[in-house]
Amino acid sequence: MALYTYKTSNPAFSRDVWKGYASTSNKMTVNGIIAKSFFCILLVASTTWITWEFIGKGYNTNLFIYGGLIGTIFFSLITAFIHRLAPVLVPLYSLALGFFLGGITIYTESKFKGMPMQAIGVTITTFFVMLFLYKSKIIKVTDRFRSVLIVAITIISAIYVLSWALHFFNIDTPFTILDSTSYLAIGFNVIAAGIAAFTLMLDFDFIERKKNHVPRYMEWVATWGLLVTLVWVYVEALRIVKKVVMN
User: Which of 9, 44, 118, 153 is positioned for an S-S bond with 98, CB 3.0–4.6 A?
Assistant: First the structure.
């Protein structure tokens, strides 16, 4: 398979992000991605802690949730199109992500004590399980595996976007059930969480193929891609635990 025709479901790892870098001498490494990932996780943790401190002093939770969400979207869009700025944009994305996650985490904690920690535990466990399954070759990322997963992600994304759009205009549809605590809604979130988890395997595979082929600053773009998937896993885990507790 040609290096730059390799496909993945994560937009952070799309073909356009990586093409045209094969001749660069200073190459991306897995160790570099690991180091940058730990650094960004520390940034996320720091602004998450700051968010908890400010909200504890009476600041509006929505200020951090929506402010962080806008920041993550803004920095993600720029990172997707201007890759050379990734060394600056990805740390900023991580800081904004911390505000967003801190906001939704403390809100959830206030309603359901201990739930965010359970979701974090599920996310961390999922990451290492998927990494083990990938490295041990128990599950191989084949063309068929990749194609099925991409179709599934597209369908899940379309359902979420349509559901949120209709909810914004207060239109009742069959998709409204996804926000309920029914077994159907929980089942949907379990499927979405499973798809998010397997997306990690696509990301691992993509990084494995691109290492030593693209410039070192693309390690930041790879880190951003992993964070995008991990946040998806965390949000799905949070939704599942919340609905199970409320059921």
Answer: 44
